[in-house]
Amino acid sequence: MDYKIALIRGDGIGPEIVNEAVGIIDAVGERFGHTFSYTDVDLGGCATDKYGVSYPEGTAEKCRACDAVLLGAVGGPKWGPDRPAAERPETALLAIRKDLGLYANLRHATLRPALVDASPLKKETAEKGIDIMMVRELIGGIYFGKRGRYETEDRGVECTDLMAYSEMEIERIGRRAFELAQKRKKKVTSVDKANVLETSRLWRATMHRIAADYPDVELEDVLVDNCAMQLVRDPSQFDVIVTENMFGDILSDEASMVTGSLGLLPSASIGSGKPALYEPIHGSAPDIAGQDKANPIATVLSVAMMFKYSFDLSEESKAIEQAVDAVLSAGWHTADTMGEADKLVGCKEMGRLIREALKA
Ligand code: NAD
Q1: Mean per-residue pLDDT for 104-111?
Q2: 282 C-alpha vs ligand 1 centroid, how far in Å?
Q3: What are the angstrom distances between the C-alpha of 59 and each of 19, 44, 91?
Q4: Is the CB of residue 44 below 6 angstroms from any atom belonging to ligand 1?
Q5: What is the rounded average pLDDT of the residues 52-72?
Q6: Which residues contact residue 330 at a Cβ distance below 8 angstroms, ignoring those fewer than 6 apart?
Q7: Cα–Cα distances in angstroms (integers) from residue 316 to residues 28, 132, 313, 359, in the given order
């Protein structure tokens, strides 16, 4: 079968890491007998330079014509906050997620066996293992709510950001989380702030209502502040964590850090239909762009998620993960995950080593 993939290479290290990821996709194709065709899509700072806007017309249509989207990273100091919104890369990211209806962001935070020492956690805590599927609501809540800024008579400027959630939005992300848990360790941790927020009380009630449809899955409620603590105290207790947009933004970065390196973690943004979008969790790392120093592994593992969730090819997905582990266990590392006894390689060489391991 021929799979169509939209490639958003983006800015900074984006083009370098996407190049290596494409090499891995082709290597999987060779090994397992699949073919792939690619469509390049301009989005982010590079699109602003070319067309004057970060999200050119027709971007969503080009992506919808494909089976999946792979995104490197967008942004950089050249397109900073002083630019008009239409020229800023972040505007394009929010727009593509919204236009493709990508309401669920899945981040798989795992501690790879060769990297226990890279985790900032105590060794005995890290050794218990980390394998968390963080499910974040992506197109609702405070990031998309109404905002305002007013002059007051006696208190200077006042601003508001509105957090709103409907039952429908909560239910669809909740069901995603329960379905994922059914294929994992069958536990969902629903994170909210139900002791304070009305949106959280609706969140909690909805999660409990739908839990009845998944009797094989255990549901627990954890307040967001407690969850932040538990993630550093004992992350091994978590299986699937589901939460709203802003809590998820913060907690998923925390979950990522405890695994050791930003350069290693993949993500998938999924909606009701096709295509889903896959991207590393890190940004465009302008400080190392164009120097062959970027770690391509988060993007390569995003491709592994693409095989599993968009193409339903679990064996291929596992083969990519095993190839990555084999290279890391053999001591090959980019600078960001290097330990004293490891051997330093650049982005291209890391890609080549993973391709070789895939053939083995
Ligand atoms: P960043 O993730 O780009 O970089 C943080 C640090 O981690 C830097 O020191 C960087 O060199 C390092 N790093 C990141 N990815 C790496 C990799 N693959 N290999 C080795 N080292 C890596 O975060 P930032 O510096 O806060 O943001 C830089 C730009 O990226 C900003 O313009 C920001 O808006 C953008 N950004 C984009 C996305 C996205 O495209 N989804 C996400 C986050 C940030």
Answers
A1: 93
A2: 5
A3: 20, 11, 13
A4: no
A5: 97
A6: none
A7: 7, 21, 6, 12
As given in the structure block, the two tokens for residue 273 are: 């239909």
Alpha carbon of 253 to ligand 1 centroid (Å): 12
Mean pLDDT of 305-333: 95
pLDDT > 90: percent of the chain: 87
Say how far apart CA 132 and CA 232 lie, in whole Å: 13
Ligand 1 neighbour 321 (Cβ under 6 A): no
Residue closest to 92 by CA, chosen among 144, 143, 43: 43
pLDDT tens sequence across 248-298:
999 998 998 898 777 788 999 999 888 999 999 999 999 999 999 999 999
Q: Which of 282, 297, 328 to mutate to test the pocket of ligand 1 (most atoms within 8 A of CB)?
A: 282
Tokens of 281: 């969790």
Distance, CA of 192 to chain centre: 20
Confirm or reject: Cβ of 294 under 6 Å from ligand 1: yes
* Residue positions annotated with a catalytic role: 143, 193, 225, 249, 253
Nearest CA to ligand 1 atom 38: 283
Tokens 């008579």, located at residue: 153
Say yes or no: CB of residue 138 within 6 Å of ligand 1.
Answer: no
If we measure between CA atoms, which residue out of 162, 244, 247 comes closest to residue 203? 244
Cα 303 from Cα 284, distance rounded (Å): 18
- Tell me how far apart the alpha carbons of residues 192 and 212 are, in angstroms, rounded to a whole number: 19
Query: Ligand 1 pocket check: which of 54, 284, 301 to mutate, most ligand atoms within 8 Å of Cβ?
Result: 284
Task: Report the half-sphere exposure of 93 (CA within 13 A, side-chain side).
Answer: 21
CB of 262 closer than 6 A to ligand 1?
yes
Q: Which amino acid is at 168?
A: M
CA 312 → CA 159, 305, 309, distances in Å? 46, 10, 6
Paired tokens of 360: 């083995």
Query: Using CA atoms, how far apart are residues 314 and 317, in angstroms rounded to an integer?
Result: 5
Q: What is the pLDDT of residues 195-239, one digit of tens each?
A: 999 999 999 999 999 999 999 999 999 999 999 999 999 999 999
